[in-house]
Design a protein that fits this description.
Layout (H helix, E strand, L loop, with lengths): L1 H10 L9 H5 L7 H35 L12 H5 L7 H16 L5 H24 L2 H33 L4 H55 L7 H12 L8
Helix pairs in contact: 3-7, 3-8, 5-6, 5-8, 6-8, 7-8
Amino acid sequence: MLFQILAAGAGAAPAPNKFGFSEMMFPNGEPNYIALTVATILAIMSFGSFFILFTKWFDQNKIMKEARTLSTTFWRAPSIKDGGAKLEKNGALRQLVDDAVNAEDQANKMTDALESHDWLHNSLARSEGFINGRLAQGLPFLATVGSTSPFIGLFGTVVGIYRALIAIGIAGSASIDKVAGPVGEALIMTAIGLLVAVPAVLAYNYLQARNKRIAEMLSAFSNDLLANISSKGAIKPQHAATVAAQAAKAPAAPAKA
């Protein structure tokens, strides 16, 4: 008799509750449209953040790599026009040099020397601004993701807790196994929002710092171009002049017998 009662009790035991991310998205096999919408928005934000990070890093790296070779390539040319031909055709530095050459041609048509100098300076400043603006594209998206994705995830959590409490109220049971599972599922959305926000904030700060260094480099290069143009090629950066002097003093290799 005792074994029959235990067997009957075991047979009547409730089925274990199903918890997890998939159950949160499709409770009882039905789609949770709010959770799916929140997860989709966060996924798009995450993909966009990493896409901007890698594309902007590639663009920045290309400029910084080319800038390190200016003293050995560009400034050793007889003129800035010839030096520009040694730079990458569609690169930012090539654009700055081409704008400087065009501005010099226009300035030579002016009769006032002061106005000519201002025209050159403003033309180079516009070119710098265009390049810096192009590098900054996408950074507002990273800032937006970093500041809003935690709240989007929190919205999914609030809705999830609300739905869980309604289900608990309908079931009429508030035991720990009935409360902990649904609430824990809802907190997953907050965790996902933070996982999206943290890389976006780190990427924004990283790219912004590199953009600042590039802007300083472009400003220095623009100033060197302006000095070179104003002096008719007589003034070159000190490091470029040093390299040229060292190359001129280098002894020629002995001829082989």
